[in-house]
Amino acid sequence: MLLNKVNKWLKNTQSCVLCGLHQANALGICDDCMSDLPWSMSCCHQCGLPTSSPVIKICSNCIKQPPSFDATSATFRYVFPIDKLLPSIKYANKTSHLGWLSTLMSQYILSQDKPLPDALVTVPMHPWDEIKRGYNQSSLLANLISKQLKLPAHLSAISKIKRTPHQKELNFIERQQNLINCFRLNEHLPKQVAIVDDVMTTGSTANEISKLLKNNGVETVQIWVLARTPE
Ligand SMILES: [Zn+2]
Ligand SMILES: [Zn+2]
User: What topology does CATH give the domain 42-228?
Assistant: First the structure.
């Protein structure tokens, strides 16, 4: 045991932050964990929900009733270990995972070969909720992505001015009403914007913020999330 520790120290090797069993790569995770990550598969380009075939670019829901945002890029599916990691970042201070996750998210976004936005914004928390948690994981993530992709992050562009119950606890109508007049835009933004968030659940918040941006001169809104939960 001690010998292992000494050897590790001598070689300056680091164990994988996910399994703790193998030697980590530059990102801090091992090759096994890396190959087991649940990368996104075929999903709707607009809302990010899974589609039955890669041939389907836009799902029937988005054709019938398109959301206010134009495209969604979700790096991972919301399954193990992502479904355990994202709540641990949000509720248990495990924000260090955002380092390697943001690097993979940036690589995924670049691999999609789509035009990059002019600016990044984040999904704001109500100031009381942010004080309680001590951080906003969306802002931490947007800050990292901003540095990696060299895109300006406007972290204070949007404020949440009303405290609301969690969207998942509400039905469709309640979700729409819950978010009315909930957000405020504080500054002028360029024409192409991406909203960065850790996870997209119902899509109602992304929809509401996109509406606000488009009512104020933004032309294209993309949603960049680590994962999209299934409906
Ligand atoms: Zn590992
Ligand atoms: Zn869709």
Answer: Rossmann fold (3.40.50)
